[in-house]
Write a structure and sequence with these properties.
The complex is a heterodimer of chains A (253) and B (259). Chain A has helices at 2-30, 38-50, 54-85, 87-102, 105-116, 120-144, 148-156, 161-199, 204-213, 217-246. With 253 residues, chain A is an all-alpha fold. Chain A folds into two domains: 1-31; 42-146 and 172-252, Orthogonal Bundle (MetI-like fold), CATH 1.10.3720. Chain B has a domain at 2-80 and 152-252: P-loop containing nucleotide triphosphate hydrolases (Rossmann fold, 3-Layer(aba) Sandwich), CATH 3.40.50.300. Classes of the chains: A mainly alpha (253), B alpha/beta (259).
Amino acid sequence: MNNFRSLPSVLRFTSLISILIIWYLLSILIDHRLFASPFDVFSDIHYHLTQGELIKDTLATLSRALISFFIAMFLGSVIGYLLAKYKQLDYFFDSWVIVGLNIPALVLVIIFYIWLGLTEIALISAVVLNKMPIVIVNIREGARGLEKNYFHIAKVYQLKNFMIWRKIILPQLYPYLMTSARTGLSLIWKIVLVFEFLGRGSGIGFQIQVFFQFFDISSLLAYAMFFMAIILIIENFIMIPIEKKATHWRKND
Amino acid sequence: MIDIEVKNLTKTFLQPDSKNKHKYKYLNVLNNLNLEIKNNEVISLIGPSGTGKSTLLNILSGYDSDYQGIININRNIEGKKLSFIFQSHNLLPWLTAVENVKLISNSESSDTNRPQKILEELGLKNFINTYPNSLSGGMKRRVSIARAFVNDPNILLMDEPFISLEKPLANQLRDQTISLIKKNKVTVILVTHDLREAIMFSDRIIFCNETPLKILWEKKIDLQGGRQYDSSIVDKIQKEIMNEQPDILKAVNTNGSRS
């Protein structure tokens, strides 16, 4: 039984190791400075951590991603809930949401960089506007499906608004909030890198642009891998535990 | 003393026309309905589906406020409350049994263990911290009964609370509910299709049919003891009703023993 339980972890670990082995073998076969080996990349991670600006750049990108994430989640959730609750608002703003969903991220950031200059506000505004429609659609869907019978209980027993939100509305919206949060974080950090590449003087995206100019593949991969590791840590140690806690009652379904 | 007073109650729904789905028409479900229920009286409303019985309960419970007429309910006086036992258990699946009961329990109450005690009283001692998806159908109903009584209500509305349960389980829950009603001295309106159930619970049965809801006949029930579903006294009263009003059961479309 225990063997079966540990099987997924073993397979995941084996899969990661196999990627590293294939990468290493290819780097020996190709033997070119533009195809860095895993050892070169790990050594560059160590170099940039100890002597470079990897930590500073990571914090810059992470803070941009998190600020944009929280603003997009908050505004998207509020607007999504209001659209589900008030049909007239939904009819009016539905086409706005569709436009928001389909407008390319690149177009948004260029417009904001032109309007507001190469500033933090321009970057964060563009990321928020890019992410928000997805949150709106998710939360609107969740809020439309809220179970009416539970509101009957709230009305009969005269529950206070705070209790209705805490015990009746939010638990029903958790799956939609979590889906938005998880897909949102993975989308946002990638967009932030592109936007930093285009118009900022700090952050992982900016450094990637510098490494691109010098064809420094090893440092480029070092920065990318380090930041991916940070995102995986956030996903595994923050997002997944929150999701498990919010939906623990479903385990016996 | 009157606990519930309904004066000239009228309720209208807008619904699609059966002949043309693009058109809507008004359906009068309740039309100038008058009803009085005394303190500690238990009445049953018995009649076919779609006559407005559940609508009446929704209005009395405060869930539906879109109506014309006057409703006077002796509610929230001296800490007393109104409770509702729904057709389905309506438990929140993300809360345990005790959390579901605590959700509506009186936070000012001195007895903080009241939710646990009432669940234990209903035979759920070992399932207090269990989530609804791990409880059987009967256990879920018990939790919903516990929730209805945890606040010591003075008025209880029940909308076919034992429907679609197997007979032995339904009888057990009926007995437990009657015992709680008597112990707590509650004024009750029970909506049911089951004549025997109506007899065992009630001081008065109101037979109704048609839309808008029309009261056809009322029968006072004087049941001193033997408030059990299969008791001979319930049998006797059922026969009496059939003899007194042979056409009434056809009119209200009930056969007297649905469970």
